[in-house]
C-alpha cells in the first residue's frame, strides 16, 4: 500500500524532521517503493516462528551498584551549542511570565 | 625503502628489529596522504604534528623494549569511531564540530597495543550507504578508478588501505560496510561475530547489527589487529566474554580439513559474468588446496535484504533520536517571526534535524519511524524479526554440513559515482550478498580474488559464530595462491 504525502508529513512530524514539500514528494515515492519491495516478506508463513531481536542470548548483565567516575560537568557541556552557568540552554516550553 | 608498501605485520616486525623508526613510518604514510589524497578524499582529518609526536614516543618505547604487538604502527580510523585529538563527524553536518568526550573502547585497545592514529576516514553519513557518496564532506573516489565509488559505508578506510595511505584501518559493518568496500577496493576486510568487539564509543546506527571491522594489507594484518580489538568490555553489555585466540596463529596455509560450502543462492541473476568467473576460479583454488568443496543452500537469502532494511532503519530511527541540537551537534533556532503553530522548542528540533541530517539519513529515519508506528509494527518490524530467525536457521543448517561458506562479496565491481544516487533501492541492492550474515551475526570477510575489467573482485568467506580463526585461515590460504591482494592501484 503506497504512502500518501499526508502520511509522509505525519511521519516527519513524529520523527521531528522539518521537510520541504519537495522532500515530502520525494520520500512519498521512495519510501513507498522500499515498502512495496518489502512486501515479498509476506510470502513467508511466519506464524510459528519466534522473532530475533538480537543474536546474543538474552541475559541480564549486572554490575555492583557503586559510584564510579563519569564525565565532569565541563566535559558534558563541551559540545553543547548553548550552555550557561553549567546548564544546557533550551527554549522556554511554558507560556507566560 | 618504500615503507608504504610493507604490510602491517612487516612494519610491526621491522619496527621491533629497528630496521626503521616509527617516525619514519608515520611520515611515509602522512607524506603519501598529503601528496595523493586530494584525488581520493579518503581522509576527513589528519593531524601530522600529533601523529609524529606519538610516533616519537613509540620510538622511545621501542628502544626501551616495551611490549605492544602494534607498537609504532599507524592506522586509519573510520570517522564514526570516537577518537581523542581528532573530530568525530560521522560524515554528517550534524556532528561537523563534534569532539568525543572519551575514546571508544577499540581506540583504547589500539592504544594499549601501541598503535598510532594517522587520521579519520570518510564515511557515508552515520554509516548509511554503500558508496561513501552520502558523506556531507564529499565522496571518496576509488583508488583503482577515480570515476568509481570505493563502496561504503567504510569507503574512506578501504580506499586508504588500497592506496597505501595506511597499512590497516578500522571500519564498521552493519550490513556489509566493511566487506563491500573491501571488495570494491581490492583489500582484505573482516567483520567479526556480533559481540566480539565492544561497540562502546562507536556511534550507533543499528545496534543489533553494528560491529567494528578491520581492513589490512593481508589477512595476517587483519588477524593481528583483530586480536588486539576483540574481547569483553564492561561498557558494552553485548560484548562476548569468550576467550580471544591469537588469530594470526591459525594462519597455517592448511585447509584440507575444512568442508567448504558454496551457497548456490549467492550466484544470483544479474551477477556480472566476470565477477562470477573470478569467484568460481577462487573457489576452485581452495579445492586445489585440499578444501572439501560442496554445494550449500540458504533458501531464505532473497528475504534478507528487505528484512534488513526494516530492522536496521527501525533501530536507526530510534538511535538517531538523540540528535536534538541541545546537548551536542548542529543547532538551529526557530525564527522569531515564525508562522508555525509548533512551539519554538519543537520547531527548533524539527529545523535542527531537518537541516542537520542529509537526504539518505532522513529517508531512513522516515522508513524506520513508519515501520515502528502504531498499526504497522506487526506487519513490518515484527515480520522482519521473524524472517531474521529463518535466515539464522538457514545458516545453522548449512554449518551442520560445512565449516565455512564462500560466495561473492558483491554481485558487481565498483560502480560509477552518481550511478545509483537517484535510486535508493538500487543502491541498497549493492549490499544484497553481505546482508544475511549480518542478520545472523556471523563473522564474514572479503578477500581479493581477481580482477574483472581491471577492477577488484572479492570472495566472501562466512564462518560459524566466534570462528573468525577459520575464516581468516581460508582467506590467508587463498592469498598464498596469488597476488591479488598485493596489486597496487596507485604508483
CATH superfamily heading of one domain in chain A: Glu-tRNAGln amidotransferase C subunit, N-terminal domain
Which segments of chain B are poorly predicted (pLDDT under 50) over 5 or more consecutive residues?
none
Oligomer: heterodimer
Distance between the termini of chain B: 15 Å
Order of helices and strands of chain A: HHHEE
Poorly predicted spans of chain A: none
Helix and strand content put the structural class of chain A at: mainly alpha
Instruction: Please state the second-level CATH architecture of one domain in chain A.
Output: Orthogonal Bundle
Q: Which two protein chains have the largest interface (Cβ within 8 Å of the partner's Cβ), and how many residues from each?
A: A-B, 50 and 71 residues
| Radius of gyration based on Cα positions of chain A | 23 Å
**Name of the CATH homologous superfamily of one domain in chain B:** Amidase signature (AS) domain
The main pleated sheet of chain A reads as:
2 strands, antiparallel
CATH topology of one domain in chain B: Amidase signature (AS) enzymes
